[in-house]
Amino acid sequence: MDSSADSPSPSTSFNNRDWFFPSQSFFNSSQFRRTPVRRFSSPYPKPSVFQHQQTSSPQKSSSTDHHQQQKQHYYPKYGGLRRRPSNFFRNENSTAAGVSGAGGSGDPGINRRPDDALAELTDGNKASTTKKGFAGSFLGRLTIRWQTAFPIAVLVTLFSSLLHKNFALHKEVINLQDQISMLNVKLRLCNLLDPIDTTYAMTQGIDSLSSKSLKNTALLVSLVVLSMPFILFKYVDHISNSRRSTDSITEEVSLSKQLAYRVDVFLSVHPYAKPLALLVATLLLICLGGVALFGVTDDSLADCLWLSWTYVADSGNHANSEGIGPRLVSVSISFGGMLIFAMMLGLVSDAISEKFDSLRKGRSEVVEQNHTLILGWSDKLGSLLNQLAIANESLCGGMVVVMAERDKEEMELDIAKMEFDFRGTSVICRSGSPLILADLKKVSVSKARAIIVLAEDGNADQSDARALRTVLSLTGVKEGLRGHIVVELSDLDNEVLVKLVGGDLVETVVAHDVIGRLMIQCARQPGLAQIWEDILGFENCEFYIKRWPQLDGMSFEDVLISYPDAIPCGVKVASASGKIILNPDDSYILQEGDEVLVIAEDDDTYAPAALPTVKDATFIQIARPARKPQKILLCGWRRDIDDMIVVLDAFLAPKSELWMFNEVPEKERDKKLIDGGLDINRLVNIELVNREGNAVIRRHLESLPLESFDSILILADESVEDSAIQADSRSLATLLLIRDIQAKRLPYREAAMVSQVHRSSFSQGSWIGEMQQASDKSVIISEILDPRTKNLLSMSKISDYVLSNELVSMALAMVSEDRQINDVLEELFAEDGNEMQIRGADLYLREGEELSFYEVLLRGRQRREVVIGYRLANTEKAVINPPGKTERRKWSVKDVFVVIAEKE
Predict the structure, then answer these.
(1) pLDDT (tens digit per residue) in 303-327
(2) What letter does residue 555 receive in the DSSP assignment?
(3) Which of 113, 342, 429, 464 might form a disulfide with 411, Cβ 3.0–4.6 angstroms?
(4) The pTM of the whole model exceeds 0.85
């Protein structure tokens, strides 16, 4: 059937026909092949916008003009087939009419400028709403905004028109292709020879139409979703202003500021807010880009989503896109991908920098257990770490964690400068405050074996107050504490309060009290400081408590000679709630559960053995000389000097004199002593003599009878004790001045004799020899804070010394390893009970007598004493827990023995 022959001419019968079938050659022509190029270009001539502006007028709307417009766009080339894009041209005509009305000169109302129109509109609104001040101000602001936005609006309108025209032409091509497809389907319906192909073609055509509609919807949705944030961001303030009350007096925060604040809070509070926001932005970009690609290409939605991801991940993948639509969408997705990749790099860089900064500043968490935790920083830390390293050497090293309010790098640098071997012990530093539970949790405080709280350098009351608050923080740990707390205090009066707060978890070591009592003991018995240094430290022998079931039922006298490598000196009685009894009776029988206190080199170096054969000790009856009154000088002022006076009154014989030489005015001394708790009227054995002066000025010292004192105690003065170097320098200057004054006051013949004896040893002069001669007349005990000062005193041998910081560190380390040792130390330093003493050998043997150490030990038991070591006459260092206790040797009456005995 020839459709071209039977059909009327297009000019006469086209409007009366619903549809027609072109020839087969028309369908097979290459003009209507659906190629990618034809999807974005059209064979139809583009209508001119200006042509429509001239031919169409808003005042002419008759059907005759409409028919003439159809004739203008009739194309006889395609056999009368043409498309009437009425919507497109109607939109263009309306747009053109709008432009003509805005810029033409036909109508005087239309030809007015937008500024004049807006001004008239604004004046009219003001006249009609004179009682609404807020609306008037709002319209005034709108007038200013529109005057500024008018050029931008014109540019946006032109750009939108061009973009709309492009998409309209593209849509026209697609609609024409769809019409051709539908005509093919109808042509096949007329052919009854192939019903199966007809059904398939109809289905395919319907699917094609629905697919095109879906793609258009997807493109529209993506554009709307993408433009919504910009619209909201631009007009959010106008929306919030319109909702405000006109009669509100209080100033309200704009909605944009509120939204910005919420975003800022979200990003600041939540730790994973930034990565989450980046992830959401990435997924949103991929989804919107995939939907947009689905609207401008023939690919499926899944393929478009994958293609969108490739554009985000690699911005160079969009180079293969063809067509204006796909290229525009792909470039937009790639640009968003570059922004997301830049943000991701920034987040990763910030996270890495923050992690390294956290590690550098010591903010990371310590995952350890059974470690020793040290809270605080002071001059005693070096000695404390050294003692802990020695104690952990038998365990192949240990773990020590230090937390202080200092920079981690500074702490590690100071520890690295300490000149001692850590012996496999690792030291971890963390920055934090012991008063904050989060910082305590960071160093695994609940899993620590022992916690040491160091006293701060400075005011004693403030230091003890901080220690008290630290104990409160430690007791508030929710997980509980596995280990015990060792607290260093500066004032003895604060000990009761700390124990009340900490309860059974706390062991206190009062540094000033320990050093003061030790100085008094050393003043009465020169050489005792070196004994304490050996026992308190872990380098030689120290105290250990352990249970030995094989010793149950034995008397303490037999237990004394049961350890070849240790010396028993007490018993922890199980029936007395674990009380430690030093130097018990020989008849005491060990019961089940009792533990033995010994002095040994290490906890794994001793064990009981079979009883050795020891010759019965012969008792030597020697009457002890009666105590004589002494004259003691105290140089300097300490905050606990009142406690030292009480201890001296208990130790010294009646009618003893205690001279106090310091810079405190005499009128203030009694008040300070009374405030410290001392009742001067209750002193029994001593008489106080006050002298005011500076201990580093020679003429002040020369006013004192320095040659008449039995003992001189040089204290680290309270005014300079915060600086160890300054305090030691002051103590050394005082020591040298006193020794020089004493040497000048010696008889000439004694000084000359000393000079001849020591001239070979000291080639530069005899001043050291003269001072040593003066030291034989009186004992001087110097309180030293810095361990480096010890070498100067040990080389000159002109004074005994008490290394206060190091001894306190040793005591803290020992109590941290075993809290039971604190009871032993408290008794040895107390006014009553047992103490460490140095005895002459004439109390236990005769000149040249040959005895083993076990036999000397048994002779000491006749005086209710425990002999723990000796010092030979020709040596300078004592031997504690000597080896070969069964070996016999000759002794001299000039030898001395170190014993634990009751205080006299």
Answers:
(1) 888 888 888 887 777 777 777 778 8
(2) B
(3) 429
(4) no
